[in-house]
Amino acid sequence: MGEITNVMEYQAIAKQKLPKMAYDYYASGAEDEWTLKENREAFSRILFRPRILIDVSKIDMTTTVLGFKISMPIMVAPTAMQKMAHPDGEYATARAAAAAGTIMTLSSWATSSVEEVASTGPGIRFFQLYVYKDRKVVEQLVRRAERAGFKAIALTVDTPRLGRREADIKNRFVLPPHLTLKNFEGLDLGKMDQAADSGLASYVAGQVDRTLSWKDVKWLQTITTMPILVKGVITAEDTRLAVANGAAGIIVSNHGARQLDYVPATISALEEVVKAARGQIPVFLDGGVRRGTDVFKALALGAAGVFVGRPVVFSLAAAGEAGVSNVLRMLRDEFELTMALSGCTSLADITRNHIITESDRLRVMPSRL
């Protein structure tokens, strides 16, 4: 494998190792994939204003998320069907996240159940939820997650229908026959069968509830004591509604650019959401994080932490649990270095003054009279 020096390098290894259908499923975005590219490129347009001559011999990256103490503000995003990447799948990711002292979010569409993931040992875990048409299924799933020791629900709200992922359509994507969506085993929910286009898109059309609305956020609060994070918010208007409807936090996400194309990069939408939240609930960022510098930029714009998705599945495909551990370690090390070189010794030291965005640059342009 050679020396891996950054998390991006795992993608090329994953591409070589995985069947085309699996790799394309993880890697692709919706339609023209403009947002997929923009999720990365928008970070590159934010520059640093580092402070100097500050004692950075001791750096503290610890933080708390919903009251849970973690080693760094870098967490694992929900990514579906991880056993397509590696036989250990979600087990490996859960162990690596726990060893790194951070939070893993398990997908509803995992190839390991909530109980199986809990069996890997202690760790702080959140459960990502899609709301199915059959509310009894949702209720059962939430209760099982709670019993298995999961600490919060990440309610995905940007998927009333699945985005048009052309790679999956071309590949006639379907879950490999030896795998199942483990959380739904034994429930009469149909199978993800071969379809004329994407088997997943057909499955979602049949199962996921398009009527999902803010009243369902309220309903979820009646069936669980777990805090509910609303995942998929990118506007001030929806931020205010999330606060009004009792969300415990917001995850700024465009679903890894897999839903509606030509929405802004999450890092571009972040500040609008943070301002609208007015400090009432924490705001997290999901999407495009590949460097420790990205983590710093998100925190400087007001994020309480970031979630990382694709680097986890690509490193899982390349090297199993060791790969995921390495990704989390590299991001942590890069983030610590960025803090040191910016003159920050704790997360509280990271401020909006440490960065300059495109809009800042436009504001300070001298007039050309």
What does this molecule look like?
Keywords: Flavoprotein, FMN, Glycolate pathway, Oxidoreductase, Peroxisome, Photorespiration. Its EC number is 1.1.3.15. Glyoxylate binds at residues 25, 165, 255. Its cofactor is FMN. Belongs to the FMN-dependent alpha-hydroxy acid dehydrogenase family. With 369 residues, this protein is α/β, with parallel strands linked by helices. The protein has one domain: Aldolase class I (TIM Barrel, Alpha-Beta Barrel). Helix content is 41%, strand content 12%. It contains 14 helices and twelve strands. The chain has helices spanning 9-17, 20-27, 34-44, 89-99, 114-118, 135-147, 166-171, 199-207, 214-223, 236-244, 266-277, 292-300, 310-342, 358-363, and strands at 47-48, 63-65, 68-70, 74-76, 104-106, 125-129, 152-156, 228-233, 249-252, 283-286, 306-308, 355-356. An eight-stranded parallel beta sheet has the order 4-11-10-9-8-7-6-5. Strands 1-12 form a two-stranded antiparallel sheet. Strand 5, helix 5 and strand 6 form a beta-alpha-beta unit. The longest helix is centred in the last third of the chain and has 33 residues, at 310-342. The chain is globular, with a radius of gyration of 20 Å.
